[in-house]
Amino acid sequence: MRNISRFITLSILIIVLASHTLDRRYFATANTVESFSSSALIDSANDAPDKQEREEARLFVPYRVQNWNAEVAELDDYAIELRREPNSEGYIIGYGARCSKKNQGEYLAERAKSYLVKSLNIHEQRLTAINGGSRGVDAVELWIVPIGAKLPKATPRVNPNAPPCPSKKQSHKS
Predict the structure, then answer these.
(1) 15-37 mean pLDDT
(2) Tag placement on the chain: N or C end, fewer CB within 10 Å?
């Protein structure tokens, strides 16, 4: 009976030491800059952001649509950020000017998405383009959305005191 209890104790000790060695190897390769120690593990656990911080969408950049070259520069920077955060998705909200075509916001968002997919090789499944409605000017918001985060909401801004849009059909009388 005594031999059996020694055998069990020795087996448990071997298992504990083996798992400790595996943990040590894992952390030593994962954190090559820092040496492994239990205090380093505690420090890194304390530095980890809590779940709510990681799961919050953030506005990368809003921009006014003025010319294609300026828009491409914003989209290039956005693609770089999406590549830095592979566990995030891109959310593109397009806004049309108050008197622009009916689906101008959708067009702008889809155009930005198309450029990111076709020219910058961002996977289409990582991108969502939506029509945000109307604002004073044509604009686009580029969002970084971690997986599982709340999606950003469109914020159209319509001034109820704005003058009516000019009629599309104007008669030219001489």
Answers:
(1) 39
(2) C
DSSP state of 50: P
Round to whole Å and give the CA distance between 62 and 39.
42
Token couple for 170: 């104007």
Contacts of 124 (CB under 8 A, 6+ apart): 113, 117
pTM: 0.64
Could you report the per-residue pLDDT of 100-146, keeping only the tens digit for each? 888 999 999 999 999 999 999 999 999 999 999 999 899 999 999 99
Which DSSP state fits 151? Answer: P
| Mean model confidence pLDDT for the chain | 76
Sheet holding 139-146, edge to edge: 58-64, 139-146, 88-97, 127-135
SS3 state at 147: coil
